[in-house]
Every structure is written in C-alpha cells, then in structure tokens.
Amino acid sequence: MTALLSIENLTVEYAIGGKTLSAVSGVSLQVGRGETLGLVGESGCGKSTLGRAVLQLRRPTAGKVTFDGTELTGIDGEAMRRMRRRLQLIFQDPIASLNPRRCVGDIVAEPLIIAGIKDKAERAARVREVLTAVGLDADLVTGRLPHEFSGGQCQRISIARALILEPQFVICDEPVSALDVSIRAQILNLLEDMKRRYGLTLLFIAHDLAVVKAVSDRIAVMYLGKLCEVAPSEQLFRRPAHPYTALLLEAIPVPDPTVRPAANLVVGEPPSPLDPPSGCRFRTRCPRADARCASEVPKLREINAGQFVACHHPLTN
Ligand code: SF4
After folding, report:
1. Which of these, 278, 274, 272, lies nearest to 292 by C-alpha position?
2. Which CATH number fits domain 3-86+167-309: 3.90.850.10, 3.40.50.300, 1.10.10.10, 3.40.640.10?
C-alpha cells in the first residue's frame, strides 16, 4: 500500500480550567492511495478532532501529518491554501453546513472562487457537472435555497461542494448519522460512486460500526483519544483482537426479533479525557483488565498480517 496520508504521533490538547484535555493522544496511522479507512469510536473519543487536525483546521499540539510527500504540519499561508484544494471535508449535519441565505449554485461554486477561478462560465459549467454527478438536476436546484431541500438532498449538495475542486482526499465526518435511515444507503452508495469516479481516498468517520463496515477497506477503532485496533475490515469483524472492538461488535443490533441483545455490552460512561485512567485507557470498562493494564500503557503492535492492537491481553494473536 502506498500511503497518501501519513499521521505520526498526532496529539491534540486543550487547556481547560488549569487542566489539559487530551483529545487525541499520540495517534499514528496511514491511509493508502485509493483506500477507504473507517475511523470508529464512541462520541467524544476524538475521531472528529483527529479529522480536523489532519486538515489543519485545528493545529495539532504535537506530531506530524504528511500528505502526498508534503508535511502539512510544516506549512501555512498560501502553501496551505493551495494544499487545501486537494483535501476536503464533508460535514455531519448537511443542513447546518450550508449557508441558508445563499442559493445552491453559489454555495457549490464558492470553493472555485476561493481557489481563484474567475471565469463565470467555467464556474457555472463545473457546478452543473458536479451537481449532475451527485444525482441532482442542476436546472432545478441551482437557484434554490438550502431550506427547500430534504436532509439527503442537502448532503448531496455538501458532497458536490466538497468535490468541485476535484480533491484527492476527503474526510467524511459522520456523513449519514443525521439522515433518516431510509436514505443513508443512498448517500453511502453515492460516496462509493464518487470515490470511483473521482479516484478518491476517504477517511470515513462514524460511531456506527455497521455503517463503517459497509464502506471501509480497513477500520481503525479509537477510544478516549487513542487507537485500540487497526485491521482490514473483514478481519476486524471476523476476529476482533481488542476487547473494546469485540464489545462494539456485540452491540450492533441484529434485525431479528428472536435474537436477544448481547449481555456483554460496553458498560458505563467513558472516563473524562481531562483525567484518563493510568495505563490502558479502557481498563475501567474492560472485562479482561488486570494489574498490568493499570500500570503499563499498551503499545499498538501487529499481531496478524495488517492487524494492529493496543492491548496486553488481546482476544486473538
Ligand atoms: S490492555 Fe488490559 S484493560 Fe486494556 S483492553 Fe487490554 S486487557 Fe483490557
């Protein structure tokens, strides 16, 4: 796998009331060219912060992000602005992410204006092309305002806006979690189509493992700012190695009324990132925790080909 994006020891911290909140703590990951990497974890585990730190929308406290040979953490100003054309973000709430006072044509064209494309006719042609690609009728939607559309249509408009500069890398931050279940599959299929059409590499962030499985080549599981497990999608579902991954898998509902919910679901709330547990951060909720887990931070290590786990007592090795 040739890495398009490489993250090394990425750390994002916030100072809150004299304490340090460690939202992302020493995360290292690679995303291969043309790959979809799913990033999954409970709300507040730091996955969206990680996505924003990759795009340098939130500058990391420490660590390195390298995209296609350029260290993003080492550039700013015009160099960063040029690089942003190649990296885009699709937001969780499509309606809130669109300016309610601007028509769809202007919203989708805005990145072209920022990128310095002055020719109005060229902008209009590219807006038409990308709106058509995401399944919207450009003649009908261009002059209308966002409130005239459903959530699914607004997400199509958001995707069009993200793709109009023909980026190489797109972070999809919970792109279907705010949508009705009935249209989630449509948007996931659209993202797959767009990936093929534009040759995209995707970082797909979600809290729902079932959604991530549908689109990802590999999956990274995050807990309280740290990576627990990274593995090919099929391997992670078949033989999870980290106890947290296994519990997340057990929590996926089965569409069969005769199947009883698993008794072994993840219990309790995650600890505060202002005061994470010593050693393994998952130990206060882990059924396999022992004294070593409290004293020694588990390192992410490869236990099977392509399967990495940060656990002293993995479920498989
Ligand atoms: S290191 Fe210990 S506490 Fe952490 S997941 Fe593994 S067994 Fe559980």
Report:
1. 278
2. 3.40.50.300
The distance of Cα 209 from the centroid of its chain, to the nearest Å, equals: 12
Ligand 1 atom index nearest CA of 298? 1
Band of the pLDDT at 183, cuts 50, 70, 90?
A: confident
Q: What is the pLDDT of residues 232-270, one digit of tens each?
A: 999 999 999 999 999 998 887 766 667 665 555 556 677
CB of 228 sitting under 6 A from ligand 1: no
Tens of pLDDT, residue by residue over 56-92, are: 999 999 999 999 999 999 898 889 988 988 999 998 8
Q: State the pLDDT at residue 314.
A: 95
Across the chain, mean pLDDT equals 91
Q: Which helix (H) or strand (E) holds 232?
A: strand 226-232
310 lines ligand 1 (CB under 6 A): no
Find out whether the beta carbon of 281 lies less than 6 Å from any atom of ligand 1.
no
Q: Whose CA is nearest to atom 3 of ligand 1?
A: 283
Q: Does the beta carbon of 298 lie inside 6 Å of ligand 1?
A: yes
User: Would you say the CB of residue 226 lies under 6 angstroms from ligand 1?
Assistant: no
For the chain, residues classed under CATH 3.40.50.300 are 3-86+167-309
User: What counts of helices (H) and strands (E) characterise the chain?
Assistant: 11, 12
CA of 267 to the centre of ligand 1 (A): 15
The Cα–Cα gap between 26 and 205 comes to: 18
CB 95 within 8 A of CB 45: no
Crossing angle between the packed helical segments 104-114 and 120-133, to the nearest 10 degrees: 120
